[in-house]
Batch of 2 targets.
Target 1
Amino acid sequence: FASTQEFDVVVIGGGPGGYVSAIKNAQLNMKTACIEKRGALGGTCLNVGCIPSKSLLNNSHLYHQVKHEASTRGIDITGDIKVNVDNLQDAKQKSVKALTGGVEMLLKKNGVTYFKGEGSFVDEHNLNVKPIDGSEEFQVKGKNIIVATGSEPTPFPGIEIDEERIVSSTGVLDLKEVPKRLSIIGGGIIGLEMASVWSRLGSEVTVIEFQNAIGAGMDGEVAKQTQKLLAKQGLKFKLGTKVTKGVREGDVVKIEVEDVKSGKKEDLESDILLVAIGRRPYTKGLNLEKAGLEVDNKGRLVIDDQFRTKHSHIRVIGDVTFGPMLAHKAEEEGIAAAEYIKNGHGHVNYGNIPSVMYTHPEVAWVGSNEEQLKEQGIKYKVGKFPFIANSRAKTNLDTDGFVKFLADAETQRVLGVHIIGPNAGEMIAEAGLALEYGASTEDIARTCHAHPTLSEAFKEAALSTFDKPINF
Ligand code: FAD
């Protein structure tokens, strides 16, 4: 037998949490290994999440613009404008491949040992690696172990996913043709992004949501406005509606729904049904019991505020533990976990983690929303500025949405920012900086913003919390 290799840190999972942490650990001069069983690095995010979805969103938006807006923008196109789903999928795959390959190079460059296989606990310090190429299993030992095994789509009880007609987020990213009818269970971010993609390409899309509002976690006013804008684009919404059945019958899916309030039933039919009701932590195959580790009632590995399990050398980050299931949250934790191991201190500000929905317009927010502030009894002021009054948005013929600031009523300290609008996802970074530095809305209103840019709407919304805006 070859002797067991020993590392300062072994990371299980090569997603945004795991690979970022592996790099950071190596940069802090710790001998580091990363075990990933997918055959490609980057996790859910790069392979079947953030990146492929954004490729489809970007290119379907371009198609929609060319098809429906070109002439108003002074571009005459003769002949048919058609979607080529094969090429659309190729473009997606190309970006995924380039990025996952790039991560592999980064691990190499930083001296991280990459094991392509499934990792499982043998005991608290030793892990078994089962290589995906079928070669002999072996063990590695970690002085420290970081679990970053991520999440998987939550199944809908009674509805069987075949990834052909009844699909999860993974299957809906891989459709080979534009479905005539697409029904979606769940009006959260993933559901609405996929609704946008396929609706732009020609599908009739129906979003079925149990709650009375879309976009779980959005500020109430923003959620309402977003729904209006998406409905204008052709999406149909069935809110306050419960799905009671979804079965494939040949090439169609039969769906039964029920109005939550009245109990009224309705039968629907669709070519594709997407189940997008959320994600759950993934710990299958880890053999947690061998290390004496436990999960809570939601399947999350339980940790303290330094990411430690009951064994202080085993830490957990990303989707497989508490907090929002977002790539950038997993990355921040990956860095902080490495710093805790090396220096004994690290930091993630959970009050300042942005959320972005990459529809068009985009929706982005960070900090508290109105409902949360009311619940906490915090007195606040609202400042709002619409993109219809912003010169760049007007020039770009892209004026839907607004910037909304929530600021402390007394001190004007920024408490939350909520944006619907073009490039909201980029603009929210400025709000994050403001929150991190404890800025007041006056600080922002007195900061010179370039003209003509969308970010002038950001500045004027900040100004509107304590004074009159100039351009509205
Ligand atoms: P993961 O990315 O899930 O990575 C975990 C990895 O561990 C996987 O590759 C898995 O193969 C591996 N693994 C598991 N068990 C083992 C084992 N025993 N041995 C070896 N390897 C193992 N987030 C955003 O921030 N922005 C977005 O725009 C966004 N869009 C999304 C769109 C979709 C369609 C989906 C599904 C998700 C999206 N997310 C987005 C969420 C984001 O993908 C996750 O929050 C993020 O990937 C979590 O990172 P992670 O490292 O914790 O886990």
Note: The longest helix spans residues 85-109.
Target 2
Amino acid sequence: AAKDLGRNRFHYFTASMQEEARYRMILIRDLRQAVNKKEFEIFYQPIIDLSTGEMHKAEALIRWHHPERGMVSPSEFIPVAEDTGLIIDIGNWVFSQAAKQSAHWRDKFGVEIQISINKSPIQFRDEGDSFEDWIVQLKDLNLASNSICVEITEGLLLDASMGVSEKLLAYRDAGIQVSLDDFGTGYSSLAYLKKFDIDYLKIDQSFTRNLESDTDDVTLCEAIIVMAHKLGMMVIAEGVETEYQKNLLAKAGCDYGQGYLFSRPIPAADFEQKYIRAIAEMGHEKVSS
Ligand code: C2E
Ligand code: MG
Ligand code: MG
Ligand code: MG
């Protein structure tokens, strides 16, 4: 009986692995099609200055409208896009969209905000890196280089093979700001904060989530903020969902907050209506939150 069970389990296991492989192949096929057919959209989530309540920045977050499945989450398809190299085309598209959007809001409303885009480590590989082309696009749109901020993750800083150091220096020379995303979740080595020129630390939402109940998380957030400031970086807290979290972070000196308390990521038209128009009508960059 034990042998039967074992065999059944084996069968079950291979079946589900086959299913997973098949599912993955379909996802890759669909993703290729999505790139060609432009099935993506960018949602924007405001980043709020915690001392004034003003909105200065937004993060561009990709959405995929799958023709049959509806909205597919980036956490599902970005890893596949990275494995297949499709992230290069997708990432370049995200950059162009964000840059055009930023120029559009400037031209139509006179409102300039900084848009952050997520750049995958795969995009840093020499054959795929379109950094020079991005600079040309910014020039063509007459956008200041700090109109775009590039979010990277800690893993990238560990990869010496891609000349990351030189690339980040080129960013600085070009005036493009850099955020370290999901700080505290990767293979963090504090030495990297000293070695690389980073403008913003984004405290991962796993630290902000339990601020109300976990005093260790309070301590960690406070320490990260002090450390970042002493190293000349500004701090953005991710995943701010409650007034309590916002107040605690503001009191600890956190510069910016991002999270559902202020807004979920929303389509460009909604973002324009809710934030850009409001700023234009008030004549300055103040949006209540
Ligand atoms: P991320 O860069 O850390 O982006 C923040 C994620 O947290 C977003 O998930 C956002 O919707 C979510 N979030 C924001 N505020 C809150 C909150 O208060 N509570 C909770 N629970 N979540 C919040 P999203 O949009 O699903 O994106 C997931 C990840 O996918 C991103 O994490 C990023 O790593 C990746 N991603 C998204 N767009 C792109 C892109 O254009 N290029 C690349 N390479 N990666 C992207
Ligand atoms: Mg990000
Ligand atoms: Mg993050
Ligand atoms: Mg993340």
Note: The beta strands are 40-49, 55-66, 70-72, 114-118, 148-153, 177-183, 200-203, 234-237, 256-257, 266-267.
